[in-house]
Amino acid sequence: MTSAVVVGATGGIGVALCAAIEDEGTFDVVHALSRSGADPIDIEDEASIAAAAARIAVGPAPSLVIVATGLLHQGERGPEKAYRELDAEWLATTLRVNAIGPALVAKHLLPLMPKLGRTVFAVLSARIGSISDNRLGGWYGYRMAKAALNQLVRNLSIEEKRRNDRSIVVGLHPGTVDTALSRPFRGNVRAGTLFTPDRAASQLLDVIDGLKAPDSGRLFDFEGKEVAP
């Protein structure tokens, strides 16, 4: 028996991912974890993450974990357009949710994944975290946090390979998806490039299905193309 885990299961993409995974019928159990859902987790609270891991540990080992959480704006706070807008508290919040939280999820869930056979631990990252692809500047906190997340993926992939040589740890760029996270910025989206959550989930699962062990440690977009670090 096997299980899948989606962290952030009440967000736009998370809900769609859970539905798509359940529809595929590949896994015996799908754990839908979220701050406000029936199976709670708070990625800003390590004790909450550890408790969720303990609940998962009593059932089938997870061979797929997707961390579908993220923070771009909150209340009046949003992406910084210039360095004059930098605020230490907001930077710390952005880093805590987008990078530190997924790191702690990895700390507690990776040990539950099988030591043999293909496993996938995926985090939703973003092209905006690519240093070499940064030509516009701005969005300081979000860029910094996603760059840190991409480095986390690389680090985890190296360590996990020692435990299971068929493990895959990746970042996934879902594109611009019609969710609350992207809502304030849709005016900048080109026609035809705003995806529904259902389409985004389907595309991401297709990418995951096509991954092989040598892909571990990399960032891929919704078409399966590697994003430069």
TrEMBL record:
InterPro entries per record: Fungal_SecMetab_SDRs, NAD(P)-bd_dom_sf, SDR_fam
MF (Gene Ontology): oxidoreductase activity
Domain of life: Bacteria
Pfam families xrefs: adh_short_C2 (PF13561)
Cellular component annotations (GO), alphabetically ordered: cytoplasm
SUPFAM superfamilies, per database record: NAD(P)-binding Rossmann-fold domains (SSF51735)
Protein name: SDR family oxidoreductase
Source organism per UniProt: Sphingomonas liriopis
Source species taxonomy: Bacteria, Pseudomonadati, Pseudomonadota, Alphaproteobacteria, Sphingomonadales
